[in-house]
Amino acid sequence: MGDVFSVTLWCRSIALDFSKKKLHTQEMTNQIALIHATREAILPVETAFKDLWPEAEYWTLLDESLTMDLAAAGGKLTPALTERFLNLAAYAKARRPDGILFTCSAFGAIIDQIAAQYDVPVMKPNEAILDAALARGGRVGLLATHPQTLPDMTADMENLAAARNIDMTVVPLLVEGAWADLGAGRRDAHDRAVVAAAPRLNDCGCIVLAQFSMAPLAAEIGADTGLPVLTSPHAAVAEMKRRVLGV
Fold first, then answer.
1. pLDDT string in tens for the chain (247-residue length)
2. Which of 144, 156, 194, 220 could form a disulfide with 150 if both were Cys (CB 3.0 to 4.6 A apart)?
3. Where in the chain is the domain with CATH 3.40.50.1860?
């Protein structure tokens, strides 16, 4: 029952588009705010909700300019970017959702700050997938297209493995140029590059797709490599459901 109240912040027109559906069930149904910095993450997470938590209602905030301006800042989270991201979270919180799920992995440090301040579950996009990877251990291939995501997520995985005394080796692989293709609307070129790169991780026990936008390629990559492929959207939705419902 998604898209109950969608707010889309378009970076070019700076316009707000509101749509409301089925608000009469609001008091009875869990509401989840989805915050995106790229529109390519929307469909994968909505698919995960339909598969795993169809009774939840979710609504979307999208500000693509965050990703654009992060790239212009050389991947550095400047004070101005941090303030804008915090304001976006506050906008979502004002509607009193039961949980907030961020889908952009490049803003992890700010999301930690938000989670510490809010009284509802707040999740980074890769929290749940990290646990799934740690459960496997051994050599874990980490495939990413965003240059900032790869070092951040590699460090997160290695730190968690060390803290839990798990024997795991992270094998990071950046698909050069794929993120630029995605941003320029060349989805087919992005997909071809990601699928072509995946077999370079054949010496691993599994492959983690670091970003929500890569999730639709999981089946093809699994077929090409013969390896288990872990994706973030389904893991994140399952974990958010557990935190909100306490099950």
1. 444 334 444 333 333 343 334 444 444 689 999 999 888 889 999 999 999 999 999 999 999 898 888 888 887 889 999 999 999 999 999 999 999 999 987 787 789 899 999 999 999 988 899 999 999 999 999 999 988 888 889 999 999 999 999 999 999 999 999 999 988 889 999 999 999 999 999 999 999 999 999 999 999 999 999 999 999 999 999 999 999 998 7
2. 144
3. 5-125+234-245, 127-231
- Give the span between the Cα atoms of 202 and 26, in whole angstroms: 46
CATH 3.40.50.1860 for domain 127-231: yes
Q: Which two tokens stand for residue 69?
A: 């301006």
